């Protein structure tokens, strides 16, 4: 192909003007830094420059900027293409630091967790395999369960055996006094469930203990709840969330039980839901724990959140999650799944700062919500805030703020 004289001259000038670029090596980087330090920062020892150059990350040279009046960006680099740090089994571990009022907790990054044989394990984000609705040839609609649900379920059961969760020792099913009559035990189970809404298990257990020990003998019974003044009851359950509303619900429930249910709790889901402050979740859990009748799955925030995280279904409300699970989950699992996933959500799959590195589902590629390649920093700060109590007096209340930051690594 013919080219003009101007084009040929332009190409020749461009070739002559090109600067050869060499691959950036440790030796060339060391020479560049040493020459630059000699000209701009003579106070820096040559040995220090060599030690800084050994690092494979240019960011480790930041100490030079604090030792002289120059900018780190002024260092001449022979290549404009930065070297990428290798992320593999042999790379250093990345830690996650949690600070809280003077205490520092460090957790290993999920990417660097080691398996039982001592080898590094990587997070493998799984693929969502939801339950499927299939129309049979006869026209009947059948729900096929998620393909890997049994493998996930068994893995969670194994993890739960290794770690004790608050629900194992302070769950609502464990708080009724065994020395009481069956009727009183059922009533205490119902009260524990009513107190547990929007409240941690530890706080619920403390409130229940106060009711059982500080009410007049024989303690927490239907008759004592009917006779105790609302102000006294409110003071005893002050620690739980929405204690003012729960005081009203408990008093109203006690009266309904006496008048409509022969001073016992209802033995049907419809009867339990008719009580003030009792929703479907409480009703199914109470029926199972108090009467031994499992008529549905008790879906709380943990069950709803975790099953959606696994990709078993895509729901926005706990009742939708209950219907989706009951469509395919074997009935013998209905009672235990709540206790299983609540404990799992309290210890490993936390609502804030999930510990994917400690979860075998993540390392085996079974969890569609695994935080692969993420560094999670959880910072807890405590501060005091002045508030007015019910008497109008100004008191100081301690508030804990939680800040979660996730970065790719």
Task: Outline the structure in words.
This protein has 409 residues and is an alpha+beta fold. Helix content is 43%, strand content 12%. It has 17 helices and 6 strands. The chain has a 4-stranded mixed beta sheet, with no helix packed on it.
Return the average pLDDT rounded to an integer: 78
Percent helix, as a range, is 40-55%
Counted by DSSP, the helix tally is 17
Radius of gyration: 32 Å
Give helix and strand order, one letter per element, not per position. Answer: HHHHEEEEHHHHHHHHHHHHHEE
Judged by helices, strands and strand pairing, the structural class is: alpha+beta
What is the end-to-end distance? 51 Å
Instruction: Give the low-pLDDT segments.
Output: 40-81, 86-96, 102-112
Physical arrangement of strands within the biggest beta sheet? 2-1-5-6
Largest sheet: 4 strands, mixed
β-strand percent reads: 5-15%
- General shape: extended
How many β strands by DSSP?
Answer: 6
What is this structure, in a nutshell?
The protein has 409 residues and is α+β, with helices and mostly antiparallel strands. 43% of the residues lie in helices and 12% in strands.
